[in-house]
Amino acid sequence: MLHPLPNQAFRKDKKFNKFALALTMISFVLIVWQELGMNLQYRIPQAAFSKTIALNDDVNGGLSRSKLKTSNGNSSLTCETVQSDTFSFCSVLIPVNERLGQGVDLSRYDQLSITLSYQEKEQLRDTILIYLLNDEGLPKSRNTFESMRANQAAIIPNLGNKSSYQLPLSQFSVPSWWMYHHPELKQHSATFDNVKYIQIATGDSFIAKNVTIEIEDIAFSGKWISKLDLYRFIVIVWLSSAILYGITIAHRHIRTLTQSAQRLHSEKQNYLKLAQYDHLTKALNRRGLDHLCRNLGSGCSVILFDVDNFKSVNDQYGHDEGDRILVEIVEYTSTNIEKNCHLARWGGEEFIVICEQTTGTQAYAIAERLRGLIEQKIHLIDGQSLTCTFGIAEVVQSQDQAIKQADVALLQGKNSGKNCVILSQ
């Protein structure tokens, strides 16, 4: 028999066609939404600008002088660099979070936007260095900020005019001087998961200069889902769908064999189950109990009991009545023993209960409760009460030995007048 080709099967599979169409529409909507929406923005609050501090080259023995002024959510730095034995610079440190000392995870953002004006007394051109200081719990040095990872980028400002600058975070890198100060670290790529400060510093020109930098606004922007992550997700969904469809097609070709195997397995399980359960009472039989309790060790107790005068019941009332009595005994017993106890039909009118983690005394209490319950609840067709005799033994050496001891105790109970519970000593 010729099977349809995959593309023919695809056309015939209306459900999958509908699913593929829906998936296409969802993919298109997500791509458009990612381009036009999903905007994520974090703007440094005005309260954080009021906590701005100045940091100059005097921390390294330099001579540069600066003046910091903050007002109305702006920070203004006036700096006069002085050449000395160290690199000359002035800078401001603006907390990223208004809660001082608490960082912000900026790893989901793509771009830094900063609005500032730049003036130099002699109209000298220079860069402005931007640092995102990420606290990674490194040991503190004499300069606390040097222990934070410096992620650096630079802009070339316009002289005189206020301008906005956009810096992709992908352009930030760790400068070589920071790597030199932290040789113990093996990873030197830019990190933004706990940024505490943004540092804005004069440029890397060695020429002495007189600069005024006024910072008005700092914001970070990005997407709730990056384009790369979205495309990766869409590709994974489509690949998964294609694989699932391929598996479905393959399943169609082997369905007959699979169903046959399942039927054979089901029949095998049913036969195994029937072999372990008593047909009449649906309780476990000896084989089922042996399989269940195969790995049980000491700390268990055995309760062995049988129906008193059961032969007379069969003789006087018939085997149907006897069968009904056995079924009721199993029903009442199974619903009134602990979860760690296992009931089985031992043979004829004899039953066994094996209780895990149960002492002989505890098993005696369980048996006494069952004895009273059976006597009270189960009656013959003419209303007469039914009784059972119980023998108890605690597993010390082996289950087989305990069963023998319980059988002896059961026999003692029979000889003592029946309808009683005997604990093997």
From TrEMBL:
Top-level EC class as recorded in UniProt: transferase
Keywords assigned by UniProt, alphabetized: Membrane, Transmembrane, Transmembrane helix
Gene3D superfamilies: 3.30.70.270
Record flagged with keyword Amino-acid biosynthesis: no
Catalytic activity: 2 GTP = 3',3'-c-di-GMP + 2 diphosphate
Residues that span the membrane, as ranges: 16-33, 230-250
CDD domains: GGDEF
EC number: 2.7.7.65
UniProt signal peptide: none
Matches recorded under InterPro entries: Diguanylate_Cyclase, GGDEF_dom, Nucleotide_cyclase, Rev_trsase/Diguanyl_cyclase
Domain GGDEF: 298-425
Top-rank taxon, per record: Bacteria
Protein's UniProt name: diguanylate cyclase
